[in-house]
């Protein structure tokens, strides 16, 4: 866990004042991934993960990227947080207490208020059939454990960027 934390901690920090010294075309490049170019509001990410140490690593790294991060420890709490906070993206484990991740995703897709919510499934289930089920219930991306934190961050950045550009439809 320490390797994940120290690697990200060395990254330069961004501030709104750092943009003032850049040409307009480079301004967007100076912003961390968690900031929307339209409103400069932080993208909200909900992590639904019952493994406390993994949730902590994810929360730390996503926060360092500039995201507004919340954590829920089970599927029921995850659904409650989604309704309360309206996140931009959910990182969803499949094997959760209370309500499993696949059912959470099904419920999100069935509700018009959350049908368009980005869902990245993060799970130890790595069989092709598991991935196919994940995509069939509505996952926008599927990442298996173990995973690279850097690659996961880039996948999240890409999902949010495509959504912001209006090209977030999954294939």
Helix content: 40-55%
Low-pLDDT ranges: 1-32, 35-40
Task: Give the overall form.
Answer: globular
Overall structural class, as computed from helix and strand content, comes to: alpha/beta
Rg from Cα: 16 Å
Amount of beta strand: 5-15%
Strand tally is 5
Mean pLDDT score: 81
Oligomer: single chain
Strand order of the largest sheet: 2-1-3-4-5
Q: Give the N-to-C terminal Cα separation.
A: 34 Å
Please provide the ordered H/E string of secondary-structure elements. HHHEHEHEHEHEH
Mind summarizing the main beta sheet?
5 strands, parallel
The number of helical segments is: 8
Quick gist of this model?
With 171 residues, this protein is α/β, with parallel strands linked by helices.
Report on the structure:
By secondary structure, the chain is an alpha/beta fold. It contains eight helices and five strands. The chain has a five-stranded parallel sheet with strand order 2-1-3-4-5, sandwiched between helices. Helix 1 (2-9) runs parallel beside helix 4 and helix 5 packs parallel to helix 6 (101-110). The model is unreliable at 1-32 and 35-40 (pLDDT under 50).
Q: What are the defining features of this structure?
A:
alpha/beta, disordered N terminus, globular, 5 strands, 171 residues, five-stranded parallel sheet
List the helices and strands and how they pair.
Blueprint: H1 2-9, H2 16-19, H3 24-30, E1 44-48, H4 52-64, E2 68-72, H5 75-85, E3 89-92, H6 101-110, E4 118-123, H7 128-136, E5 141-144, H8 149-164
Parallel strand pairs: 1-2, 1-3, 3-4, 4-5
């Amino acid at each position: 866990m320490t390797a994940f934390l120290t690697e990200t901690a060395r990254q330069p920090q961004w501030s709104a004042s750092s943009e003032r010294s850049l040409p307009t075309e480079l301004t967007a490049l100076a912003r961390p991934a968690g900031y929307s170019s339209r409103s400069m509001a932080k993208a909200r990410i909900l992590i639904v993960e019952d493994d406390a140490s993994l949730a902590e690593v994810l929360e730390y790294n996503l926060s360092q990227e500039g995201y507004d991060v919340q954590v829920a420890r089970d599927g029921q709490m995850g659904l409650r947080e989604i309704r309360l906070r309206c996140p931009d993206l959910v990182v969803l484990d499949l094997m959760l207490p209370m309500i499993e991740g696949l059912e959470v995703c099904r419920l999100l897709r069935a509700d018009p208020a959350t049908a368009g919510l980005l869902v990245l499934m993060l799970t130890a289930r790595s069989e092709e059939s598991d991935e196919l089920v994940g995509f069939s219930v509505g996952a926008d991306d599927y990442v298996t454990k173990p995973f690279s934190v850097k690659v996961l961050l880039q996948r999240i950045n890409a999902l949010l960027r495509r959504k912001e550009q209006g090209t977030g439809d999954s294939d």
